[in-house]
Amino acid sequence: MGSSGADPTRTPASTADDYRAFVAVALGVTNPTVPIVANSQGALFGLAAAAQGWAQTLVLASPADEVANPSVRELLPEAARALPDLVQGTPDAARDLLGSFTPHAMRTMVLDGADAKDRAVYTTSAFDALYQTALAEGFAGDGGGYVADTMMATTPWPVDLAAITTPVTVLFGARDRVHSPDHGALLTTRIPHARRVVVSEAGGALLWTHSGLVFDMALQLPGSPPETL
Asked: What are the tens digits of pLDDT across the range 198-220?
């Protein structure tokens, strides 16, 4: 996001179009086809890219689930239903609430929701310095990009998951208690050609603690891996 101009009409599909335009220029090609890794709330946009057909493979690393889906909502603890209910019921109030977030507040929320092992990863000096820089860039423009992303991610996803033909891996850490109430089990069943892998010793910080595994899966998907590693 950074210093990009805000698009008030942005959608998951238009965001995926923006990513594709960026990749096309970066690679110097007209129609790029690339492996994609999408983490946390970025899962929606990775799925949108896959639905457009330009993802060679897609790894959803600790993806945030579609909390507005009734079947997912039933699995959520009561406290986790508050934001999606606010977004769907009173969207202006939800935007005001999300707009009050700051980089510091986001970092605090992540640390408070992490278990001890993940917190140790997030608070190492090297990681924390990069994380705080990324947060500052991501919340540029009074956090408008974050507000837009969260509003899209917590309403029903306008992506036809059944139309995705890209090989998809839904990758979770067994200790993850933040991103999905069932570690992506239901989400995996909704995506053709998807498989779910749960890493027994990983948590919500899986993208950073097991980055080699994430990129290996994005670059070369084996036939039938075990569901648990």
From this structure: 999 999 999 999 999 999 999 97
In the chain, what is the greatest distance between 2 CA atoms, to the nearest angstrom? Answer: 48
* Beta-strand relationship, 168-173 and 194-199: parallel
- Residue 93 identity (one-letter amino acid): A
Written as six digits, the tokens of 75 are: 């699995």
- DSSP code string of 175-219: T--SS-TTTTHHHHHTSTTEEEEEETT--TTHHHHTHHHHHHHHH
Please write the tens of the pLDDT for every residue from 135-151: 999 998 889 999 999 99
**Of 37, 74, 79, nearest to 57 (Cα)?**
37
Cα 147 to Cα 18: distance, rounded to the nearest angstrom:
18
Closest CA to 85 of 155, 177, 152: 155
Q: Which two tokens stand for residue 71?
A: 């079947």
Tokens of 143: 């956090």
